[in-house]
Amino acid sequence: MSDEPARWSQATVYPDMWADPDDDPRNNEDSPDGELATLQDFLRNYRITLLMKCEGLTPEQLARRSVPPSTMSLLGLLRHLAWAERDWQNWITDGDPRPNLYGEGDGGFEGAVADQAEVDAAYAALAREQAATDAALAEHPDLGERVGKDKIAVRELLVHRIEEYARHCGHADLLRECVDGRVGQ
């Protein structure tokens, strides 16, 4: 016997997929028109992917650390990305930065403990911060516009957000497989 979970997928059409194409909320029948819509679509799909990797798990499973000494967990990723969304809001504004959500350093990961209240707070913080960043960027539809104190192009902010979610969705793939063996794109 082994402590390692057996690999599995819920997909029946393509056994290496997370979900069957008809059940996958990321599937769009229409390709987006234009650069802004394409970037927003990629961001939306990575956000959904992260949530899909976390669904159906208990607080204990979400808070399970990866490989010591790493503090990474699925719950930690939810908290980290809420922190990152707030940080991106700070890049957009010329005003004073909003306070860090989880203290200094690795607080998003360190505070990811197996408690339902923490899980609920993490999901709520992520949704709130995503909405706030989206609203702030909606005021700047020109991808070439430079915003904030550092005059960063809106395009760069959107691409960086996609990169951050994509990288962490890769982490989430491995974390989920370690938790219960579920695999897929």
From TrEMBL:
Entry protein name = DinB family protein
Q: Which Gene3D superfamilies match?
A: dinb family like domain (1.20.120.450)
Kindly give the InterPro entries that the UniProt entry links to this protein: DinB/YfiT-like (IPR034660), MST-like (IPR007061)
Q: Name the Pfam families on file.
A: MST
Q: Which SUPFAM superfamilies match?
A: DinB/YfiT-like putative metalloenzymes
Ranges for region Disordered: 1-34
Q: Which domain of life is it from?
A: Bacteria
